[in-house]
What we know:
alpha+beta
Amino acid sequence: MNKRYATVISAYAPVQEISDEQRKALRQNFKPLAARRLTSLPLLIGELTKNTAPEPADEWLFASEFGGAVSLDKYLGSFPNPSPLHFQNSIHPGPLDLINVIRRLPARQLTPMIGGENLLGNALLAALISPADTVHLVIGEEYSAWASEQSLGSDFTFGAYLKLSQKAEHAMAELVHEPEGNAPTVSTQETAELLAHQKPLTTGLPSGGAIRLQWR
């Protein structure tokens, strides 16, 4: 049985649009010039990960179905004068990578994960089997009308972050792999809702078994 301990958990429940007041508050995590460059998801990631205290040897996992699709939309809309910034941020892990670059946080490994129905289970399993002592798991999506209408982006903006350690000290929750377990699949959107309200979650794995997060 594989187990890790969540020492930091933060989440932002799904909404379609972040209000102007919320966006202004989220921008306070950054210098004004950097804040103006950030779309909704990196702004959320900046808030959710502000208490991470990462080390260079840690692993980062970024799990998202659509990743930097909003920046891709903005990049395509910038022609005939294409924006290098939006092009850079349109890569799949761009929303997380941009925050770590702004904060000058080196990382030995950043693993982007993409998927739909089984994304959460695969991301949690990857965190459990990682050789790193500490894994930072970030999940999230951001809404834009064009991307959503074209089925190229999420219908909601949300995010969640878990700092997962091999040590039980200061643990908020336990993450456990149950090879004989059985459970329905939980989406990343549902996960953000559950974690935002400090509720337990159990998700099934496509290869069999389940992963359970239980708050302490």
